[in-house]
Amino acid sequence: MSAVLEARGLIKRYPGSASNAVDGLSLAVREGLCFGLLGPNGAGKTTTVEILEGILLPDAGEILYRGAPLGPLFRERTGIQFQDTALQDHLTVRELLSLFGSLYPSILPVAELVKLCDLGELMDRDPEKLSGGQRQRVLLALALVNDPDVVFLDEPTTGLDPQARRNFWELARGIKARGKTVILTTHYMEEAYALCDEVAIVDRGRIIAQGAPDSLLKEHFNGVTIELPKADYKPPEGGVPGDVVVREGTVELMTGQVEASLEALKRGGSSLAHLRVRARTLEDLFLHLTGRELRE
Amino acid sequence: MMRRFWAIFRARNTEFLRDRGALGWNLMFPFFVVFGMAFAFSDRGQDVFKIGVIGEKSALPAGFASTRHVAFVAFDDPQAAQGKLRHHQLDLLVKPGSPLEYWVNESAPKGYLVERLMLGSDASQFSPVRRAVAGRPIRYVDWLVSGLLSMNMMFSALFGVGYVLVRYRKTGVLKRLKATPLRAAEFLAAQVASRLVLIMGVFAVVYHGADFFLHFERLGSLLDLYLIFALGSACLVSLGLLVAARVTSEELAGGLLNMLSWPMMFLSGVWFSLEGAPKPLRMLANAMPLTHLIDAARAVMTEGATLIEVAPHLWILGGMTVLFLVAGAWAFRWE
After folding, report:
1. Can you tell me whether residue A151 is helix, strand or coil?
2. What ranges do the domains of chain A cover?
3. Minimal Cα–Cα distance from A196 to chain B, Å?
4. What sign results for the dihedral spanned by CA atoms A61, A63, A67, A69?
5. Residue B177 and residue B166: Cα distance in Å, rounded?
6. From the centroid of its chain, how far is CA A36?
7. In chain A, which residues have their Cβ closer than 8 Å to the Cβ of B20?
8. What CATH class is the domain A3-217?
9. Candidate from B14, B15, B181 with C-beta closest to A72
10. Of the four listed, A294, B86, B89, B228, which is most buried by Cβ atoms within 10 Å?
11. CB–CB of B96/B55 below 8 Å?
12. CA B144, CA B36: separation in Å to the nearest integer?
């Protein structure tokens, strides 16, 4: 599969900032896949994606769409859902779809958009008066109005409740199923895991790991995470094999040697009555790679 | 290209027309000002008789010339003086000599009174010859209305385009549009056109609505008046565009727009004529688009001027419009 969008050596620094928001970042997005840019707030995800979208100009580096620098065709063939967008006041969803549709040479039929984004009962409503999840569906429809090849979704589910988030994932899967390339930024690792074929973990403006979620986890971890209530945990003398992370109510032990770790815990006098074992997540990977938690 | 222009043009119009508060205010405010001023100044200048003298005041009969509470104003041009008499800006016009010639406006009550006054003085010894003129008075409100409508137009143009653009930029509406094939020139042209149409719509409603009650004395052509106001509003809308070209804060935009609109409100001759003002002040006023709009509109309204006669003002307005539009489009940033 060929790269539909490619970035080479992107650098961006905001005036007055001591460091680069994007610091020599390169990536290639293959056609028809969902590509995730993951990282904590302030990692440079949104800056990176806005450069990829052609909204921001980088200080250095270049972006290629199908092998050529971004031109007018790029605008016609891409759709963007920004992290937060205001829309013209006093226009209904139907009118907004018609307005944005008029800006493109070719568009998706409205009926199809309605189906794709589940807009049925929202068409004659004012977007200002919709719930968070409904509003995101409208913004998604605006991003799809021109039937784009590449769809950018910048933190589309931030601030949504879990139910609305899962509903949005379903819509995103529907878009993928139509063969579109999706570029998603998120700080929910769960979301990336659910939707992305390939992820790039971004920290301080650089990609620190990249690959398919499962192979990334396999590459960096060969074990599991053991969780204990904090009150039950007694640090054994000589330590435990693996990384120990003390959180608010729990202690997490990331280890590849499950039996040896459990032995050590028992020896130290920890109670294992409420022990939980779970697979490693992208969240654990971020912690492992940076020594910091994702949502700090 | 035209499709994208129309889409944005229609969206902006709908947005404005559905904003009931703003629409109501845009229509009601100028009505309040015009009516308020019409009533507040309806008695203006009635405490002194004003007599025009063709030639030297010293040539008048001495007794008549020394009448108290009468102002004598010398004129070199009999035509201009008769025009003022016709519009009740003079109560009587006198040409000294023997016989003494005088003109009186028969539809003006004060003309009647001041004629009796003259005939009761020593002027009667100069075998006065009476000539009658007729004409409806130009009241202060007829003079004022061009200024008030222009001022309202200025606020609507500057804030309606300037403020809205900055709000669009701040909230991300512009960023969203930037992500489409829409070009900046198409977007800006649609904003200007939309505001122009809305301003002229409001102008028509307010002008004809107020005329229905106040019966403006308009001496020039209505079409000319419309053309002048259309050009003037294009100029002011373009100025709003220039101010908002890259400002991102509503506070800053508000400050800049106020800084432009307040001096124009007081120095462009909305409320009083600047004919006798100091030269630096008049030079400053001449740099303001509102001055040229008001001067041209007022000349059509109260002097019956044609477009050719006010052409210098129109050239200046046209030039400023082009300058503001080009600079505004050049400086424009979506973000």
Report:
1. strand
2. 3-217, 222-279
3. 24
4. negative
5. 14
6. 5
7. none
8. alpha beta
9. B181
10. B228
11. yes
12. 11
Q: For chain B, where are the alpha helices, taking DSSP H only?
A: 2-18, 20-40, 62-65, 78-86, 109-119, 140-157, 164-171, 173-178, 184-214, 222-243, 250-267, 279-286, 289-303, 311-331
Amino acid at A154: D
Q: What is the DSSP letter of B125?
A: G
**CA Rg value for chain B:** 25
CB A153 within 8 A of CB A185: yes
Separation CA A213–CA B3 (nearest Å) = 44
- Point out which residues pair with B74 in neighbouring strands: B53
Cα end-to-end distance, chain B, whole Å? 22
Reduced to 3 states (helix: H, G, I; strand: E, B; else coil), residue B170 is helix
ipTM of the complex: 0.82
| Strand blocks (E) in chain B | 49-54, 70-75, 92-95, 101-105, 129-133
Question: What is the rounded radius of gyration, in angstroms, for the C-alpha atoms of chain A?
Answer: 22
Question: How many Å apart are CA B114 and CA B92, to the nearest integer?
Answer: 7
Both structure tokens of A173: 């899967």
Q: Which residues of B touch A135 (CB under 8 A)?
A: none
> Domain spans of chain B?
2-41+139-331, 49-133
Those residues whose C-beta lies under 8 Å from the C-beta of residue B261, and which sit 6 or more positions away, are: B154, B155, B158, B159
Look up tokens 């669009």; give the residue: B168
Model confidence over B109-142: pLDDT tens digits? 888 888 888 888 888 888 888 888 877 777 778 8
C-beta of residue B162 within 8 angstroms of C-beta of residue B243: yes
Query: What's the CA gap between A244 and A252, in Å, rounded?
Result: 6
Residue-wise pLDDT tens digits, B19-48: 777 777 777 777 777 777 766 665 554 457
Q: Is B74 left (phi over 0), alpha (psi -120 to 50) or beta?
A: beta
Chain B: closest CA distance from residue A95 (Å): 8
Out of 2.30.30, 3.40.350, 3.40.190, 1.10.3460, the CATH code matching B49-133 is: 3.40.190
Pairing of strands A206-211, A60-65: unpaired
Q: pTM for this structure?
A: 0.76
Interface contact A102-B4, CB threshold 8 A? yes
Local confidence band at A295 (pLDDT 50, 70, 90 cut-offs): low
Structure tokens at B269: 């001759």
d(CA B324, CA B115): 54
Amino acid occupying residue A210: Q
